[in-house]
Amino acid sequence: MSSSASTSQDPLGHALLAYQRGKQNATITVHSNVADEEPLPAAYFFRSLWEMPELERTALGECRGKVLDLGAGAGCHSLELQSRGFEVKAVDISPGAVQVMQERGVSQVACHDIYDHALTKEKYDTVLMLMNGIGLAGTLEGLERFLQHAHQLLAPGGQIMATSSDISYLYEDEDGALVFDLNGPYYGEVEYTMQYEEEAGATFHWIFADPSLLQDCAEAAGYQVEFLDEDDQQQYLVRLTLKG
Fold first, then answer.
1. Where is the secretion signal located (predicted)?
2. Which of 205, 173, 202, 204 is nearest to 188 (CA)?
3. How far is CA 226 from each of CA 92, 211, 229, rounded to the nearest angstrom?
């Protein structure tokens, strides 16, 4: 996709901008290949600290040093960290989201995808990937690639603070047994399309990594793995620390 196409196709960014301009009920419709379509209110991206799930508040409390917030959305995590005195760079692939963050006062904002070479020019003590942020890697292969790539983003002893979920519950039958194709792609790989009003974006891949899979991938990529917390929706918070 050319950059001009991606700039015009930005349903998430346009919904965030609409909310920022006062349209309180701006809502994104999320289509996926594993569940019914779901509404995602733009307001969710603007939540304050006490509106955040406990996993996210814990993650913010564990941040240290210079922080890179990947997939930063409307910047709610970056703004909270800034208010605590952290140096934060917020990055999103959505031009509209980047504009919203600039307007909201996030001091360092850039429009990049997670592999953009420009990001590797600096080293970070914490890479933050919240709101199921591991999903940015897209697929199982993408997760392995990203964990290797992140070596170039992290300072010595740096950490990735990330949330993800085990979505195997979507594949349970009436008896609670799991039913999925063991020869097919990993069950946590999902295809999404976002729509805002009449505008639909391109379909993209998102990965929900179960804890044992993430642990195996991260250890193979040279990280120490520490699961810090989980909630009752199968979501968990993990710290991946670069060894050596």
1. none
2. 205
3. 26, 10, 9
Strands (DSSP E) contained in the chain are 27-32, 38-41, 67-70, 88-92, 108-111, 124-129, 154-165, 189-196, 199-200, 204-207, 223-230, 235-242
Which parts of 171-243 are beta strand (E)?
A: 189-196, 199-200, 204-207, 223-230, 235-242
pLDDT at 25 over 50: yes
Distance CA 89, CA 114 (A): 13
CATH of 52-187+205-242, picked from 3.40.50.150, 3.40.190.120, 1.10.1200.10, 3.40.50.880, is 3.40.50.150
pLDDT of residue 162: 97
- Token reading at 121: 């020019």
CB 91 within 8 A of CB 72: yes
**Encoded tokens for 43:** 């307001």
Q: Count CA atoms closer than 13 A to 123's CA, side-chain side.
A: 10
The secondary structure of residue 10, as a DSSP letter, is -
180 near 169, Cβ under 8 Å?
A: no
CA 215 to each of CA 49, 175, 199, 212: distance values in angstroms, whole numbers, following the listed order: 28, 28, 38, 5
On whether the pTM is more than 0.90, the answer is: yes
Rounded Cα–Cα distance for residues 127 and 160 (Å): 5
Q: What type of residue is 216?
A: D
Q: How many CA atoms within 13 Å lie on the side-chain side of 154?
A: 23
